Amino acid sequence: MARIEPTHGTDGAPDAGEGTRRAHGRRKAVRYAVPVAVAGVAAASIGIGTALASSGDPDLPKISAQDLIAKMAESDTQQLSGTVKVTTDLGLPSLPSGLSLGDAPAGGKAGHGSAGKEAGADTSPQAKLTELASGTHTLRVAADGPDKQRLSIVERAAEYSVIRNGDQVWAYDSKSNTVHRSTAPKGMHGGKEAPQELRGASPQELAKKTLAAVDDSTSVTVDGTVKVAGRDAYQLVLKPKAAETTVGAVRIAVDAKNGVPLKFTLSPKNGGKAVVDAAFTKVGFGKPAADTFDFKPPKGAKVIEDKADGKAGKEHKAGPGKDAGAPDLSGMNVLGKGWTSIAELKAPGGVGSGAGAKGAKDAGPAGALLDSLGSKVSGSFGSGHVFSTRLVNVLVTDDGKVYAGAVTKDALIKAASK
User: Fold this and answer.
1) What Rg, from alpha-carbon coordinates, does the chain have?
2) N or C: which end of the chain has fewer CB within 10 A?
3) How far apart are CA 312 and CA 78, in angstroms?
4) Which is nearest to 184 in space by CA: 171, 173, 202, 201?
């Protein structure tokens, strides 16, 4: 692969000469994140205190995209601590008045109940980390090798932390004073892979999942340099070539010294702000304090012993309901590969109350809800509804099949019609 000269100012940032006498600099913060696809450029301001004005993007030796990817793959950095700002905007549709995403389906029970302060509140790690799928969140992260990691979601008056120390994994919700305790799966102790609860919540993990999709269907280039949390970094840009994907581009800021991803941004093909934007606002690569990974359940806390499969087991202290755990995806089939992958599965219980093969028009309130949230479509598969976000489209057929992916509506209809 040809070597690419890093460029400056190509992403729309102010020219270096314009900001040399200002007290504060403006720099791009690129987002991290999640398993589907990553792309685009999102701007965020990071103050640099009362220091002298920025001298612009760092002047680094030129590097090819191939060599930069290799630098990331060869990085052996296992100690770090810092703060990450994560913003996710899928553009989820608003539900009709009186309904929320947490409402139970017809005939079901409200909530997924774990031992929270409020009935039905799910404080399990799997449920809590899904909150990162929307809005802006501040995370504190720390790692000291493969056996010690900590992730905390910082809220206004509370904090949710997941701590791995050896083979013990703790999750603590200070708002409800609830603790989930589990054991890292066998074979993971001493390995490089973190428990499920700690995966997908760092620029490193997001970058790893994205790079796994890189092949001849992806254009990969180096687009200049940038400062992230005070560190020099190269900007790696991945752009899918497939017309069917809704992913526009992925931009990853890679630490020039140690190859660690510092920023991650995913932008949709139709433009607008980034769908996922994650960046370290503060980071250090020294050894974290040993007590960072110590945890002892506070007095009076409800302690839930989670099973190896992530579902809640017995509670040391009684609480309302049982943890429903993660949904069963054992019947999922993946169609296609890379950026155009589509997940196919059977919707549990069909498509809402009474929908079935008759279609949503005969499904009463459930059918009306489907009509208000999605667009009706038809094909050789019959009929159904497509629900769209700024990145992911989902086709739900009237006979209960679901097709989902970061692809266009037409791609889903084509997949369902085969």
Assistant:
1) 23
2) C
3) 30
4) 171
